[in-house]
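Researcher: Here's the sequence for the chain we discussed earlier.
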Amino acid sequence: MEELQHEVVNYKYSVSVKFKGSKKAYHFGTDEAIYNYGDKVVVETIRGIELGDVISELRLCEDFPNQKPTKPVLRKASEKDIEDYNRNKEDEADALQKCQNCIDKLKLEMKLISAEYTLDRSKVIFSYVSDDRVDFRELLKELASIFRCRIELRQIGPRDKAKIVGGLGSCGMETCCSRYMEEFDVISINMAKNQLLALNIQKLSGQCGKLMCCLSFEDEMYKEQRKGLPKMNAQVVYNGERFRIQGMNLLNQTAKLGNKENMVIIPLDELKELMNQMPKENTHHEKSKEFSK
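Model: Thanks. This is the structure I predict for it:
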């Protein structure tokens, strides 16, 4: 079977365009050197015709081979384009309510998040979240009869929902995803372990119910800080007494050692020296009667 050939369009120039509500910039092509930083432009996207803001100067595509645009800048936005855009934004709340009424009528298990018109109103896009697969064939029929344009129902995940809705994080600042993040990183529980945090999933989760994105921001630094350090609860001999490592503070560079009688705080550098002095069999295999109970 022959592979499908995609049409390749080579533009002379490219500009970066950002859309309202999005933190990510996209590259669009043009052969006209008439666009400047701050211009409002009408562009063609995979979703349809949209209005965006130019956030870069015009640049030659040949100078940036890794940023070749695939969609064109159609024109500078006219007053009518801006009026249409503002009218669409005002009508989106009404579209959202009409769609919600249809969902309630059909008793569908889906939570509606947003509604967006393309600039020419040829399409309205509804975003929703759902735990299960939704049969929305009847819903599409209802919506098509109301809006008389193309309807797109886009299922999003809980992290995308949090990004759209926004809110305040446990730090008291606006959530990172809605404030500046362009894409989501993979977050694992090991990142919390690297930071020696208590593994309380509720406290480590954001508004989306997933592990907080900020766990990844300093992960590399904490990995570097953990090099050469023992695991928690490892045993060490200090001043002739056997202790268990009860805690380590990487920011203060201190370790907390404790046994039944005493508790001491020592620098991490000193802890590393103590661990290097201990025989391997004592570090990994010897079990003290004091801690075996």
